[in-house]
Amino acid sequence: MPSIKDVAMKAGVSVRTVGRALYGGGPVKDEVRQRVELAVKQAGYAPNLAARSLKTGRGYLVAALVASGDELHMARLDAFQIEIEAAGFGLHVIFISGGKEPLGLVDSLVRLGVAGLACFHVSATRLRKEFEGRGLRLPAVAFDHQDPGADAVLLDRPRGIEEAVHDLAAKGRRRIAYLGPADPSRLDGYARAVRDLGLPYLVHHPDLKDGEISMGEQGMQELLDKAMQPDGVQAFSDMMAAGALRCCHRRGLRVPQDIALVGFDNRRLALCLWPQLTTVAQPNEEIGRRMACLLLARLRGAAPDAPVIESVTPMLVRREST
Amino acid sequence: MPSIKDVAMKAGVSVRTVGRALYGGGPVKDEVRQRVELAVKQAGYAPNLAARSLKTGRGYLVAALVASGDELHMARLDAFQIEIEAAGFGLHVIFISGGKEPLGLVDSLVRLGVAGLACFHVSATRLRKEFEGRGLRLPAVAFDHQDPGADAVLLDRPRGIEEAVHDLAAKGRRRIAYLGPADPSRLDGYARAVRDLGLPYLVHHPDLKDGEISMGEQGMQELLDKAMQPDGVQAFSDMMAAGALRCCHRRGLRVPQDIALVGFDNRRLALCLWPQLTTVAQPNEEIGRRMACLLLARLRGAAPDAPVIESVTPMLVRREST
DNA sequence: TTGTAAGCGTTATCAT
DNA sequence: ATGATAACGCTTACAA
Predict the structure, then answer these.
(1) Torsion sign (Cα): A185, A186, A188, A192
(2) What is the spatial distance between Cα B123 and Cα B117, in angstroms, rounded to a whole number?
(3) What residues contact B104, with CB distance under 8 A and at least 6 apart?
(4) Which chain B residues have a beta carbon less than 8 Å from that of A48?
(5) What superfamily does domain B157-281 belong to in CATH?
(6) pTM of the predicted protein model
(7) In this structure, which CATH number among 3.40.50.1000, 3.40.50.2300, 3.30.365.10, 3.40.50.2020 belongs to the domain A53-155+285-313?
(8) Taking residues A173-183, what's their average pLDDT?
(9) Which of A22, A64, A190, B177 sits a CA distance of 20 to 30 A from A153?
């Protein structure tokens, strides 16, 4: 492994000059700069990041906390990584399986000297408190929830649901139900839409907890049994919609002829179903990019003191189920 | 950030003694060790990994190359991470989106001083060659393919397919077809099974390339049009099976009454379909764990010179589609 | 049984 | 416009 000394030797200058030539911080003769750059190429020199961060105290790793392996998180993370690496940082991914933090997570982050934190649908409030307890400030950006003092990118679910319900109404549906847990943001959008459209408020919250598919299947069953007679259903998620679809198949209800069905998330699953699922898509790439921008600005000290909150809007994707 | 000096001061000993007390390497009085451990606790000391790896030259990060955000890779990676972190290493995940390596990947890995490499379905032959070109040996473990000189965990697909076909036959199916690309490992298992069972060899390779779902749908259509009259189908993947299922629905074929259908992978999707898909499951956690063991052994220098190749067996999961 | 000190590769302060 | 050198926190050979 060539070090900066080797480069200096090769170029016939001092290490200080190599530093100036590569990163600025003082005047360097053009001819010398060229010699240095050539020497870097020839030696295959790449600065040792361990040494750098030991010296500067600044870390070069950004940690991402991710709820285990979910397709949506991965899409966001992918976009996030690209921006982060383009800015010269490295991405350190930590999977939080089953809601449990890895043992000694804070320690390992401190030891690694992480420069910042990105939370993909996992709250890091406690974790950041621990950092503060050690006298460290850890810049952070979160998705879809607000950690106190952290920047955030929020998803405007109400808007997405509202658009979907309006679209159902535009297709002639008059009894549009909401199926799923009592999530305030989704219910807000649904409630606003049916009120504005003058349609009945039809909501069913299945109280099942074991997985979204069976929740969707059983919830749909109950919805039908309660004689709500829906001709359209906005589901909490694609997974729940898949369950609802199973119920319709079982009962011989045709989708979309008898009942139109809309999901939420636009998972790849939506394309695999019969019929293919109309759904509200999250702009995952945009989310990842925005999170990276926010965090990078803070790492560069170019962000205001107060947390920056941004909002992204989901988009309706029309398929066979409506 | 407390350093080892602070701990030494607090405990009233030298840094050398702290080192011995914490990591061994010489005798330490019990009483002194206790004082040191107390001081570590009180100071909240955690060794600075940048300094350590600068000094030792050994990295503490293991890099994982992953084909972007796939659910199966994530499950394996999750298990992999747990073992790696338990061994005191950190995991550095790199997503290879769309088959393209991030620009300057080798450089960034060198600079990070990664200790080892894990390839989840991405070949790293070229990458490791580049490392060798710089005079660095990079221990590596791969999944599902053999990189020269690297350890590997292979999936015994033939066994999995064979078991599935036998299961179809046991349920009375006599015309079992294989639907999918001409993947040698899967075809091997299929061919062996139908031969052993004395059943006809019915194979259709759709030459469509645009996504596995439409490939499954169109492939199934062609399979039926060719009058192969299958009463059972082993698909290349769950995604293809989902497409095949769509075709059956469209044509009014009942699954499993008219045709039984088996997928491969056991994605979460399999539970969302109607009917729920019987499929060949990959033991993802085991794969991740084994890869970690192999790599850790090599990092500790406890592995033989020759590459170690292990094999894991998939398992049939019976659901509604058979 | 314990302590001293060198050195890893970088950055940055100072002098030239 | 350039160079010598100290310091970051850690590990470890060597001295005591």
Answers:
(1) positive
(2) 11
(3) none
(4) 54, 111, 113
(5) Response regulator (3.40.50.2300)
(6) 0.90
(7) 3.40.50.2300
(8) 97
(9) A190
| CA-based nearest residue to B293, from B268, B271, B310 | B310
pLDDT of residue B100: 72
Rounded mean pLDDT, B290-317? 95
What are the boundaries of each domain within chain A? 4-46, 53-155+285-313, 157-281
The pair of three-digit structure tokens given for residue A196, joined into one six-digit string:
């504005």
Q: Which residue of B has its CA nearest to A74?
A: B69
Alpha-carbon distance of A95 to B170, in angstroms, equals 41
Cα gap B254→B248, rounded to integer Å: 7
pLDDT bracket for residue A176 (50, 70, 90): very high
Same fold, A53-155+285-313 and A157-281: yes
Beta bridge partners of A151: A141
CA of A281, closest CA in chain B: separation in Å? 17
Question: What chain B residue is nearest to A132 in terms of C-alpha separation?
Answer: B1
**Nucleic strand C under 7 Å from the C-beta of A272:** no
CB-strand contact B27/D, under 7 Å: no
Contact by Cβ (8 Å): A245, A214: no
Instruction: Order across the sheet with B140-143: list the strands.
Output: B90-96, B61-67, B116-120, B140-143, B151-155, B309-312
User: Is B234 (CB) below 7 Å from strand C?
Assistant: no
Residue B68 token pair: 């972007």
Of A141-155, A285-299, B203-217, B232-246, the range with the lowest mean pLDDT is B203-217
Q: Which of A214, A291, A296 is nearest to A250 (CA)?
A: A214
Residue B165 CA, distance from chain mean position: 25
Nearest protein residue by Cα to C1' of nucleotide D5: A16
- Cα A130 to the center of its chain, rounded Å: 23
Q: Which of A154, A151, A115, A153 is nearest to A131 (CA)?
A: A115
